[in-house]
Amino acid sequence: MKDQLYLLRPGFMNASLGPLYCNDSAPVEGMLSFFPQLRELLDVQYVEFARPRVPLVETLGPEHQSLPVLILAPGRKLKAGAPKPETSKERWFFGNERSVREYLSIQYGLPRAS
Question: How many whole angstroms separate alpha carbon 5 and alpha carbon 72?
Fold first, then answer.
């Protein structure tokens, strides 16, 4: 099983504002662009702006719907130096773009951000 990366689908509307993109998902999208092999190593899914964000509610609970989020595959062994994941409903995850990017760099042997 692969780690699951959830990003906000770009071009969403928020009330009467938009179309918009998520400024927290954009740096992670940048990593996917710089290192396209990540799309093969991860299960990348795009979710809509509207809540509830069902896949996240089902896996992590309603309090963890912010994006981006990377849910680790069950039994994932973290490489030395990886950030410490959060936990919810017995699942490990990273719930902010910096920890997602740091994890991806360390876990998959990619350059780190400066």
Answer: 9
User: pTM of the predicted model, to two decimals?
Assistant: 0.95
Query: How many Å apart are CA 109 and CA 113, to the nearest integer?
Result: 13
Indicate if the pLDDT at residue 106 is higher than 90: yes
d(CA 8, CA 24): 9
Is residue 38's pLDDT more than 90? yes
Residue 26 lies in a domain: yes
> Which runs of E-coded beta strand occur in the chain?
3-8, 12-14, 17-20, 42-47, 69-71, 86-88, 91-94
Q: What's the domain range around 60?
A: 3-107
Angle between helices 97-107 and 25-34 (to 10 degrees): 20
Looking only at the bridges linking them, the beta strands covering 17-20 and 69-71 are unpaired
Q: How many domains does the chain have?
A: 1
| Domain-located, residue 114 | no
